[in-house]
Amino acid sequence: MPDLSLALPLAASELTLAIGAMVLLLLGAFLGEKSARLISILSVALLIAATAVVIQAPLGAAFDGAFVADPLAVYGKVVIYLAAAVAIVLGDGWMSRSRIARFEFPVLIVLASVGMAMMASSGDLISMYVGIELHSLALYVLAAFHRDDLKASEAGLKYFVLGALSSGLLLYGASLIYGFTGSMRFEDIAVIAAQGDVGPGLIFGLVFLICGLAFKVSAAPFHMWTPDVYEGAPTPVVALFATAPKMAAMVLVARTLSEGFGGAHDQWAQVLILISLISFAVGAFGGLAQKDMQRLLAYSSIANIGYALLGITAGTEVGLQAMLMFMTLYVVDQIGFFAILMSLSRSGRPIRTIADFAGLKKDRPVTAIAITILSLSVLGMPPFSGFWGKFYVFGAAADAGYWMAAAAGLVASVVAAFYYLRIIKLMWFDAAPDQAPIDKAPVETKVVGWAAAAFAFPLVIVALVWLEPLTRIAASGFGAG
Fold first, then answer.
1. Quick count: other Cβ atoms within 10 Å of Cβ 200?
2. Number of compact structural domains in the chain
3. Nearest-CA neighbor of 267 among 323, 161, 196?
4. CA angle 61–67–71, rounded 5-degree value
5. 257 three-class SS
6. Number of C-alpha atoms within 13 angstroms, CB side, residue 302?
7. Membrane-crossing residues (predicted)?
8. What is the Rg, in whole angstroms, of the alpha carbon atoms belonging to the chain?
9. Phi and psi for 349 in degrees, rounded to 5?
10. CA 132 to CA 127: how far, in whole Å?
11. What gap in Å lies between CA 298 and CA 457, rounded to an integer?
């Protein structure tokens, strides 16, 4: 029996969210749909409280090493909780505009956050799977949350079916790994891998495990669900998909491969290199043909996950730190993009196509400036934050000897720059379409838009003011590594 007096403080933030979610669910059921705004506010407060708890919680391992509370887990959970809180804020505004007031929306995000936090703290294959399934079940429902919309229902169904496939790959890989190592714990697996006892069976299990995890981060060629789900799911749900789950999955991939299979780096690095290269190509060239903004962001996320995986591929502490830096700055960019996207509409219809951005400078000049900054940051233009994320990742890969893969990533960045520059060109140089002007936003929508614009401007300063502190914080995540 584990010593709960030692284990419970380590999992204090997860317990806070789980108990809080149950309380909010009962409160919502008692008060009815009119409580949607109240439940959203309480959910945001709960996530902020969980952030404070995880920062103050002790470090260590519990449940025979199945749950790990270390600087990496703390770093990942802070980003996850804050990104989830922003998604709830965006979702509250979306529900008020869509007249879909459901208290279940923020509760589902809180429950998904519990699963994502479990992923960040996974110390063995069982806790890894429990965390993945816990967050996935909530995300399946969120993808189809707008049940009266055909595309949303289709997105939820596709995500569920393909998610079941990825779970099968994960379980099959985990069973092979257990069969050839005799243990589920990453620490025990690492000992066997370090001894050079990596046979074909263990390699097959590792490949299946990586393929299952690649689905969760929407890396190519396991990305088939991403464009359709991004297009069909409600915009605040897509904002969640693009941020918190990506961070959780990347922390899990880093922990699994570096802590569990560090001795088999030469084997899994080949698989990650291939996945990264395919993600570069699919994300860069696939995005060129897109007209829907959310599908475009889906292909952009595929390419960016390829860049992050390149940092893990390096197999060095510097590479893992670079991955954390890249994912943090990527989450910041995506939050700004989706917040601004949700604040724009014409004749009551949300702006969804790239062509709708034409002439935006005339109606919303401040918003146009914010989108320009975010676009330049995501494509990696210096001195914006996205440039520094790619700088660290490509540098770590080149230092580890994977300079050809880093060069391929640079080429993909140049190709992907086209669709971001196209948005900038439409906003600033093309005439506004012959249709209704941008709607005068309601108060709550206007607040979201201005907050997003204010959020975008500091990205210029990130490289000058916050980059060094952020680097030290990211380094602490693998300081013990």
1. 8
2. 1
3. 196
4. 65
5. helix
6. 32
7. 6-31, 38-60, 72-91, 103-120, 126-145, 157-181, 201-225, 237-257, 269-289, 296-316, 322-344, 365-388, 400-421, 447-467
8. 21
9. -105, 125
10. 9
11. 24
**Which residues does 310 contact at the CB level (< 8 Å), separation at least 6?**
272, 273, 276, 393, 394, 396, 397, 402, 405, 406, 409
How far apart are alpha carbons 331 and 325 in whole angstroms? 10
Q: Are residues 229 and 143 in contact, defined by beta-carbon separation less than 8 angstroms?
A: yes
| Cα–Cα distance, 474 to 481 (Å, whole number) | 12
Task: Give the helix/strand (H/E) hosting 345.
Answer: strand 345-346
Count Cβ neighbours within 10 Å for each residue of 159-179 and write b for 16 or more, e otherwise.
bbebbeebbebbebbbebbbe
Q: Is 370 left (phi over 0), alpha (psi -120 to 50) or beta?
A: alpha
Encoding tokens for residue 53?
């708890």
Cα 192 from Cα 321, distance rounded (Å): 25
DSSP secondary structure code for residue 121 in this structure? T
Nearest to 77 by CA among 108, 43, 47: 47
Model confidence, pTM: 0.90
Largest CA distance in the chain: 70
Instruction: Supply the range of the domain harboring residue 8.
Output: 4-477
Tokens of 73: 């887990």
Among residues 81, 51, 67, the alpha carbon closest in space to that of 10 is found at 67
Token reading at 230 = 């991004």
Q: Tell me how far apart the alpha carbons of residues 390 and 384 are, in angstroms, rounded to a whole number.
A: 11
pLDDT in tens, the chain (481 residues): 455 666 788 889 999 999 999 999 999 988 887 888 899 999 999 999 999 999 988 888 888 888 988 888 998 999 999 999 988 988 887 777 666 778 889 999 999 999 999 999 998 999 999 999 999 999 999 988 877 777 888 888 889 888 888 899 999 999 999 998 888 999 888 888 887 667 788 888 988 999 999 988 889 888 888 988 888 888 888 989 999 999 999 999 999 998 888 888 888 898 999 999 999 999 999 988 888 888 999 999 999 999 999 999 988 888 888 898 889 888 888 888 888 888 777 666 777 788 888 878 887 787 888 888 888 888 888 777 788 888 889 999 999 889 999 999 999 998 988 888 998 998 888 776 666 566 555 555 555 555 555 555 555 455 444 555 555 555 555 543 3
Q: Is 359 helix (H, G, I), strand (E, B) or coil?
A: coil
Question: Rounded CA gap, 46 and 194, in Å?
Answer: 42
- Measured distance CA(471)–CA(479) in Å, rounded: 12
Q: Extract the runs of DSSP E, i.e. beta strands, from 8-146.
A: 60-62, 67-69
